[in-house]
Amino acid sequence: MMADSSAPVLAMSIRFKFWESGDHMCNACNGKMMQFMRAYSDRRDLLKGIAGGLLFTGLTGLGAGTDRAEAAPPDSGAADTLFLANNILTMSANTPRVEAIASRRGRIMAVGRRADLMGLKGKHTQVVDFGDQTVLPGFVDPHMHSNFCGLRPWLDVGPFTTADMDDARRKIAQAAAQAKPGDWVLGKMLDPSIMSGQPFSLQDLDRVSPHVPVFVLESNGHVAYANTKAFELAKVTKALPDPPQGRFMRDASGELTGRLEEPPAFQPFVSVLPTPRPEEFVGFLRADLDDASKKGCTALHDCGIGGLYGEADLALIDKVMQGDPGVRYAGMLVSTHFKKWQQMGLRPGARSNRLTLNGIKAWSDGSNQGGSGYQRQPYLGSTNRGALNYTPEEIEHVIREAHQAGWQLGIHANGDAAIDVTLDAFQKATGQAGGHQLRHRIEHCSILHDDQIARMKAMGISPSFLIGHVHFWGRAFRDRLLGQERADRLDPCRSALDAGLRISLHSDYNVTPIDPLRCVQNAVLRDMREGGGILNEKERITVAQGLRAVTLDAAWQCHLDHVCGSLEPGKAADLVVLEKDPHKVAPDKIQDIRIHSTWLDGSKRFAA
Description:
It is a single chain. By secondary structure, the protein is α/β, with parallel strands linked by helices. The chain is about 30% helix and about 20% strand. Helix 13 (about 415-430) links the parallel strand 17 (about 410-415) and strand 18 (about 440-445). Helix 1 (about 30-40) packs parallel to helix 8 (about 265-270). The longest helix is centred in the middle third of the chain and has 17 residues, at about 280-295. The two termini are about 40 Å apart.
């Protein structure tokens, strides 16, 4: 059902309701992190600039706009483009491997053998021959976030780009040496829990940057670090009392250590550090989308639109999409803003300029690695089982309200007890088979047991796995948090597939980088980055299954499979071209395969 074209524009006065909940979630699910980001940008009235000034068009096209590939179905006549290759993997059961694709006005006309499709060549047809390179449907990341594009220019000192804590110190020292007067060194994504070496101290940061102010944020959003120069500019001294619910950490003698705990302690620093202009935020998000295209993505699915800036989230995304990036975009709106979405006239399937709104996102618990995922049994060496963010009755209410309005539900659930509560809520709110038509999902669905898989199959609910958990945090789960038996249930892709579930693999960007080939490799190998080894070899999947989880089944979960996810007549000519076939390289080399080019609606959008 499409939204009424008279849906209110976003230039209305902005009201905000934000998610405020448990500790140590992923950034986009973390109320504390969002509190920091709001303070970071509100100081210059950013939201008013985005919603009222810069993004003046808002979503006025909702209900009237269409994807370019959907606007003009193919008809008889010559093809605009013939794509040829010796190895085209379509992800279609009818024609899994072909040699040619004919497209017209952005849509696929036909697939098949070269000789059969050459009859569609006209005098203006472009012929693109990829030779021995491998062609696949464009990749789909079914769970990422746009909310934190404002941190894009910050220095990445996290575990995916930085070897260890000493390497983080070297990066900060280098940035400080290159800084101009008035600059700050702003660092992000630090994660001492999986980065070897000693945590930062005030003395460390003073040594690497004695004159340039430094502020470094951990990826969990609860801890930050600053040097003496930053403390001076923020007017924080050892005599200053801790703010409510925040702490300026001190040593035994009362001296500041450089460590800050909780966003209220960040506020004095946020109030003086430089912040982006509205047009810069547009550029940051566009750069994120361009980076995804370079990784072979032609579709992204945002699981938390409105969680940070309310309606302005939509305005920001819509403005970026008007600039015609190389991806189509879809997403779920946050449940905490549900009444506002209704007042705006938004309905399932509402769209404008290649932006589609298809679901409602809610959260049941927090993060397993942060100790707030809700578990059946306590974490190792503790009595802590984590916690729910909402009561079971509240979760049930969210599901019932959105389900009855025709929205797909995506419920964040990491711990096994949180998955139990979520499944109970789905069953009470929608009925035993309530999820089949709307394709309800459990996001992350991390510690998943066979009895839960059976329930999901019966109710038509599918899991989207943050497979990077296995690679980046697997040893932490096994040895320090959950123990072998429960860690073996982390992202059980094979068990889910064997039970007949359709699964997808996602990045949860910016929790892990957008890189579908890396996701495939993680699911195929299940290797642990920290210390090596394999986490439950029985849950490995094949390369073919991994590729399906980042193409057709990911598109299906996102209600985009009528447009993309496979290379079939009637669908968009969205392609990714790889220099090697993932089936024919060593499993530990899959993520190293070079992306040759990415094509959206039959047009090249990235070339290596």
